[in-house]
Amino acid sequence: MNDELSILKKYWGYDSFRPLQQEIIQSVLDNRDTLALLPTGGGKSICFQVPGLIKEGICVVVSPLIALMKDQVQNLKKRGINAQAIVSGMTYRQVDIALDNCVYGDVKFLYVSPERLKTDLFIERFKKMRVGLIAVDEAHCISQWGYDFRPPYLEISAIRELKPDVKIIALTASATENVAEDIKSKLSFDEQSNSFRKSFLRSNLSYACRYTEDKPNRLLEIVNKLKGSTVVYVRSRKKTVKVAEYLNKKGISATFYHAGLTTEERTKRQVSWISNETRIIVATNAFGMGIDKPDVRLVVHLDIPPDLESYYQEAGRAGRDELPAYAIILYDQNDIISLRDKLDEQHPQVEQLKTVYQAIANHLRIAIGSGYLESYPLDLGLLSEKYQLKHSTTLYALKKLENQGLIELSDATYHRSQVYLELTGPALYQFQLDHPKHDIYIQLLLRLYGGGLYSNFVSVDEKQLARELGTNQSQVRKVLNELAKVGVISYNEQGNIPKITYLIPRMDANKLSINRNILKHQRELAEHKVKSIIQYVESQEQCRSQLILEYFDEKSPQPCGQCDICRKKKPTSKSISDKELQFAIQTLINSRPLTMLELKRELTHVDEDLLKDMVSKMMDANLIRMNEMMKLTK
């Protein structure tokens, strides 16, 4: 199947593409370097996954986000598409097998972090791969003008030189004109390249910022007034728990989500919210990547985000079904002060970076010149306490060291145990004959997990194994470790402690290679971003949509008419009862399907917020629905 619409229908079940998707895909299929700037919810992954399936060979996807890589690989596998991800914390053997499968197997998508691109192991296997396309996700990371510049992204152009005929598609949800031009330059786009930019205007999203000294009660008022699926963003893990508990005590179904939960627990809470069993999910910014829930009606921020890029992405998770939705920031004066104060904490000095780097080496006992591409568990709390370092400063220093391309940090999430069969055929059979006590474990592994054990690491559940064998998990782990010691299997035991990977051999901290110009530039950029988000929050005159569009170098000829600033300037609309409004909407839609904009034009005397609320209620009650052409119909 080489028709893009057929591919879309077969694997994703959609009958049509979203705006700009088909044009972007066609550009890639026409063998042109392509830059796609699509706001959150615009369907960026489809733009490289569909042509990746059509083109011969493998699609190599460069992404900086471990959680997003894992989510996308999992989603592709659910659709019957073979995908692999190479992330920090994997052993050399795991990486070796994964790359072998990309060279000799039927892997269609390989997700890698930019740091992996310069390793000898990756380069040698990349040369042997039949590559059809290179996709660069979160492409703003390659630009020093971007809000999350990562030097390892500069390695992509070097990889490209190894396969000059392979084209690149670069994707990002938020980039100014300066960043867009820098992306094309850094990735060596040719003159025949194409750029596509979807407007950052979200016409169905109503923005608001409200000053309050009592956030809990104001939040309660909002979620009681604006019904539907909701995300509440906060900046700390403790606060997710506290806010969720508060909402539950008030009779509103809520759960919390942060990166410190196990994968199993996060998945459980996520599924409960996606299926609408739980109405509200209170989360840190760890939540949202790779999650496509179209019917989110409300996103509330109880803390001011660090920049407008972050806010636009997080707020943009509301109303992806194009129906009316709301994005609200609740703030007080302490939030403004805190945002400015955090600049110093988030941008530590060079000497602080060296101190933290040395503390890590001492803590892990890593000698100078060693540790290259080795991963080590790192308990940040223990490190900070042992060397009398401030926890938050240590964390930001680690991020700067990662940003400089010296180390890589894994996400602090639960990783299931994995097993790979090293022995095969007669050798394995002979071992089973000679070791009957171990034989039952090998037989059970093969029965539960099949032949996949021979080709790749497979996630295993020690609890299930113990239940099947009538023993306990400790005994199962003991035997699996014994089998690993004698070379029958490779066994990577589960863990929930984050890992640090040295991307270059450990250096003398006093001679640490730190690019001071990058640190200075990042500080100045951060100051600009803080100034912009504060201006957005405190604005009492300019339309909030216009402020966002201007930040992304997009002109807006007129105010949105629906943010809190615009609503204050509106004349009071003619009074109309709910029953009258429902009847008017039903009558119009019974005559012909209408878009939301067409409906608004028909009911000009009705306040826009009232109209949006009534449409949402009627859809919830199955009185009307949205058809494939995004029109309201009976």
Write the layout of secondary structure elements.
Elements: H1 4-12, H2 21-29, E1 34-37, H3 44-54, E2 58-62, H4 66-78, E3 83-86, H5 92-104, E4 109-112, H6 120-128, E5 131-136, H7 156-162, E6 168-172, H8 177-186, E7 194-197, E8 205-211, H9 215-225, E9 229-233, H10 237-249, E10 254-257, H11 263-274, E11 280-283, E12 296-301, H12 308-315, E13 325-331, H13 333-346, H14 350-364, E14 375-377, H15 380-386, H16 391-403, E15 407-409, E16 418-421, H17 425-434, H18 436-449, H19 452-455, E17 458-459, H20 462-469, H21 473-485, E18 489-492, E19 499-502, H22 516-538, H23 544-551, H24 564-569, H25 578-591, H26 596-602, H27 608-620, E20 625-626, E21 632-633
Parallel strand pairs: 1-6, 1-7, 2-4, 2-5, 3-4, 5-6, 8-13, 9-11, 9-12, 10-11, 12-13
Antiparallel strand pairs: 14-19, 15-19, 16-17, 16-18, 20-21
Helix pairs in contact: 2-3, 5-6, 13-22, 14-16, 17-18, 20-21, 25-27
Q: How is the biggest beta sheet arranged?
A: 7 strands, parallel
Distance between the termini: 36 Å
Order of strands in the sheet with most strands: 3-4-2-5-6-1-7
Percent in helix: 40-55%
How many beta-strand elements? 21
**Structural class assignment:** alpha/beta
Number of domains: 5
Question: Any idea what the shape is?
Answer: globular
Work out the radius of gyration. Answer: 26 Å
Strand content: 5-15%
The average pLDDT is 87
- The low-pLDDT segments are none
How would you name the CATH homologous superfamily of the largest domain? Answer: P-loop containing nucleotide triphosphate hydrolases
CATH topology assignment of the largest domain:
Rossmann fold
CATH class of the largest domain: Alpha Beta
Architecture of the largest domain, according to CATH? 3-Layer(aba) Sandwich
Number of helices: 27
